[in-house]
Automatic annotation (TrEMBL):
GO molecular function, one term: nucleotide binding
Domain of life the protein comes from: Bacteria
Motif (Histidine triad motif): 131-135
Active-site residues, record numbering mapped to chain: 133 (tele-amp-histidine intermediate)
Alphabetized PANTHER family for the sequence: AP-4-A PHOSPHORYLASE (PTHR42997:SF1), HIT FAMILY HYDROLASE (PTHR42997)
Species of provenance: Klenkia soli
Protein name: Diadenosine tetraphosphate (Ap4A) hydrolase
Domain HIT per the UniProt entry, residue ranges: 37-146
Binding of substrate, residues: 63, 135
InterPro entries: AP-4-A_phosphorylase, FHIT, HIT-like, HIT-like_sf
Alphabetically ordered keywords of this record: Hydrolase, Nucleotide-binding
Length: 187
């Protein structure tokens, strides 16, 4: 029998994830800055908020629901939704903290690579669309296996508070400041 005879529906198996519908419909998502976790976290202790480092305009926090061990987020203190809403100073510090985060995670866990990015808007996959945050997800060769794909289970080798402490201890006391760029020579 030709597997392509009936089109894609006869070739591909279906993988249903009905538990995701609550997420898609927004159950339990914050509705404003009064219940936004990224607005509430800075008022917590570093341990309780899983904060790795605090900057002037942004902070670095361990993801409470990580894709991989050491999954960090760089978050502006200001409650803004879009990257274009950031000031130049916030953009610079967000970038500098992301670079530092990558170096620290490589130092403490030997990450082979990273997925760096932000989802802008709920349609783009942002879990908390109203407060911008950039993900720094460490990756290792072979880290995607059957456990998360078929078993719906993530295997994390360390409890979050221990991971937070390890990263916070390795975070430089005085990370390099972002270097402002000049607009270039006048023409």
């Amino acid at each position: 029998m030709n597997p392509d005879a009936g089109g894609p529906t006869t070739v591909f198996e279906q993988l249903w994830t009905p538990y995701r519908m609550a997420y898609i419909q927004g159950e339990g998502k914050p509705t404003g800055d009064h219940d936004c976790p990224f607005c509430l976290i800075p008022a917590m202790t570093d341990v309780d908020g899983l904060i790795v480092a605090r900057g002037t305009t942004v902070f670095v926090v361990l993801n409470k629901f990580p894709y991989n061990a050491g999954h960090l987020m760089v978050v502006p203190y200001r409650h803004v939704a879009d990257y274009t809403d950031l000031t130049g100073a916030e953009v610079a510090e967000l970038g500098a903290c992301t670079q530092t985060a990558m170096g620290v995670v490589r130092e403490v866990s030997g990450a082979h690579g990273f997925n760096i990015g932000m989802n802008q808007g709920s349609v783009a996959g942002a879990g908390i669309a109203d407060h911008l945050h950039q993900h720094a997800v460490p990756r290792w060769g072979g880290d995607t296996n059957f456990m998360p794909v078929l078993g719906l289970t993530r295997v994390l080798p360390q409890v979050l508070t221990d991971t937070r402490q390890l990263l916070a201890d390795a975070w430089p006391d005085d990370p390099p400041a972002p270097v402002p760029t000049s607009p270039g020579p006048a023409t």
